[in-house]
Amino acid sequence: MTEVAPQEDTAVSWAGTVAGDSDAFARIVREHQAMVFSLALHCLGDRASAEDLSQDVFLQLHRNLDQIESPAHLKFWLRKVASHRAIDAARRRRWWPKFGLDEIPEPAIRTPAADPLLMRRLAKVVKTLPETQRVIVVLRYQEDMDPSEIAQVLEMPVATVKSYLHRALEMLRKKLGGKKE
Amino acid sequence: MSDHLENELRAALRREDPPEGFAERVLARTHGAGYRPERRARRLPVWSMAAAAACLTMTIGIGEYRERREERARGEAAKQELLEAMRITRAKLRLAQEKVRSIHE
Fold it and tell me: What secondary structure letter does DSSP report for A106?
C-alpha cells in the first residue's frame, strides 16, 4: 500500500519547495495529468467533461499545496479528490446520460482481447456501472490499486470495496454476454 | 482473482493523455483574474456573529430607551408648564374676586 502518512522533515521541505513555485507546480501537473484525466474520462465518458474535472482537481491542489506532505501523499490526494469529484459529477449526470446501453453495438462473436473495438465497448460498459462501483473498477484496473488502497481513497471499509468490486465484475460479465472465464 | 475480463479491463482502462496544452490551461487558470489562491473562503466564526448581533440589539435598545426617556422628559416639562399656568390663573382669579368683594363691601 502506498505510504501517505506524514513524515515531518521531508514533509516540511517538500511543501516549502513546491508552494509558491509555479515551475514545480507545472511539473506536478504534467507528471500526474494522465492519471487524473483518465480517471475522469473513464468515469464520465467524454473528454471535455474529463478535462473540466481534471482542471478543477489541479486548481484545488494549487490552493491546498501547503497541505501536501510528500510525493506519495500528493498521488494519494489527487486520486482521492479526482475520485470523489468523478462520483459527484457522474451522479449529477445520471438523469441526462450522454450515452446508454442501447447505443452499444452487440458484437456477433467474441473478438480477441487486443481488439480496439472490444476495448472501446468494454470501457463504455464500465460507464454504465453505478457511480461508486465505476470509480472502484477504474481505480482497480486503471491505477492497479488493491482494495485496501481504494478503501483509503474512497474512505470506506475494505470489505465494502471488495463487495462492490465483485458485484461490478459480475455485472460486467453479464452485460458482456454472461461468459465467465 | 485474475481472469480474462480483468486483463481486458486493464487494457480498456489504460491511462490516456489529456488534450494538448492541458497543463498550460491549468496554469493559466491559476493566474486568472477571478482566481483566489486562498485555501478556503474565510468565514466569520459563530461567536463573532453572535457578538455582532448582540451589539446591534444593544444599540437599538439603547436608542429606543433614550428616545422614550426624552419623550417622558418633554411630557413632564409640559405638565409643569401647565400647572404653573393654572397656578398663575388661580392667583389672578383670586385677586379679581377680592377686588369685586371690596367694591361690594
Answer: P
Mutate to test the interface with B, among A55, A83, A169 (most CBs of B within 10 A): A55
Q: For B3, which of A26, A142, A181 is closest by C-beta distance?
A: A181
Nearest to A39 by CA among B11, B14, B22: B14
Give the angle A39-A156-A41 at the CA atoms, nearest 5°.
10
Query: Can you give the C-alpha Rg of chain B in angstroms?
Result: 44
ipTM of the complex: 0.75
- B67-89, pLDDT tens digit by residue? 888 899 999 999 999 999 999 99
* Chains A–B, number of C-beta pairs less than 8 Å apart: 101
CA dihedral A79, A91, B22, A120 (to 10 degrees): 90
Do the Cβ atoms of A176 and B39 come within 8 Å?
Answer: no
Four-point Cα dihedral B57, B62, B67, B72, nearest 10: 130
Query: Quick one: chain A helix, strand, coil %, rounded to 5?
Result: 70, 0, 30
